[in-house]
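Aim 2 progress update. The chain analyzed this quarter is reproduced below.
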Amino acid sequence: MNLLLVLVGIICWPALLLAADGPIAKKSSRAYDFVNSIGVNTHFGYYDTQYGRYEEVLKPRLLELGVKHIRDGTYNDDVLRKYQEVGEKGIRLLLITSADKAVERAKTIGPMLWGVEAVNEPDGGRLPGTWEQQARDEQQHLYEAMKNDPATREIPVVGLSLANIKESPGRLGDISLWMDYGGMHPYAAGQYPSFHWGWGMSMADALAEARRVSGTKPLLVTECGYHNKENNPNHPGVSEEAAAIYHLHLFFVYFNQGVKRSYKYEFLDLKPDDSFSDMECHFGLVRSDGSVKPSFTALKNLLMLLDDTEQDFSPASLPLQIISDGEVQSTLLQKSDGSWWLALFRPISVYDLKTRTNRPVVPVSVQVQFEKRKDICLYCPNRSAGPLKSFQNKRKITVDLGAELLLLEIKSR
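Predicted structure tokens:
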């Protein structure tokens, strides 16, 4: 069975609903908040890579994707101009920077700056006892510098993210006093997003380790995602088709765990590498020749479908019931126009890491029941931004859910 033709569902809700007594009111989140929970890592100043093709590839593809948040650590006058240029189109920046330069840079960048972050992965490639105190000091100095200046004190300060999320948090200790948000890098290493959160850790264990550093502060996943170097034993890759499915699930899995924002690593493949010899050249949503991967198209469609203007409204509950003979997870979102968007997805592997092949997925039947009659449109962002099917004046519908994301647009009559 062709993986791309398998119908899948994705939702913004972690638990399967099997209520025996009919629809139960379920809380929703704002669609605006979900869209703003998605970001991508960029390298605007990597001139010797495909990021150097700013006018040809980087800017047009970034604006085409529709993402509202980027994370970057490069800085000079030329990069500043480019940051501000995409910022005029509504993109916000999380800047990795040093404590001694943070305030000046924040003031110069202006309103497109969302937040600042301390040094990236200070434990990477370093022995225990050689990095911890320096990292603590840098985080404290960054926080104090930003908060002691009236012009920058409202800008969020993000805690540093660690390379080894299994052992390094215990060595670094609690530094939550010096951050507004914690950070972590839970790479799934070719597995389904909720099955592996880096270093062989479960989702619960990885989150607990992150909390050893950030305490009760909200969490950001500042790097995550998949690459396409399939023959890479230490950090396995997946096919482009499998990545397109996993990447959409990933953002919902993290959102359901309360992660404020997740930044996919990364936006562009760095350099041409037809022999697939370098993993670092294959993390992008866009290939090195400027063409887009299936993950780009799926994410673009998802962002287009769920995009909403920011409004001060409280999302309403929606009585519903989800019934299936397979495990189904979901997320319920609401837009400011009152429409609800239900994402349905199955936590299931679609790629075999041993054989390096896509796994066929047999769809399961999923019934969604409502308390009152609704008008419903069915979408699959992996296929298109247009509706696959419409249901008028229905109290229940049945869909086939395979491996790909499904979205239900639900409107009251």
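Residues 1-20 have pLDDT under 50 and may be disordered. Residues 27 and 317 are 4 Å apart (CA to CA). These observations will guide the mutagenesis experiments scheduled for the next reporting period.
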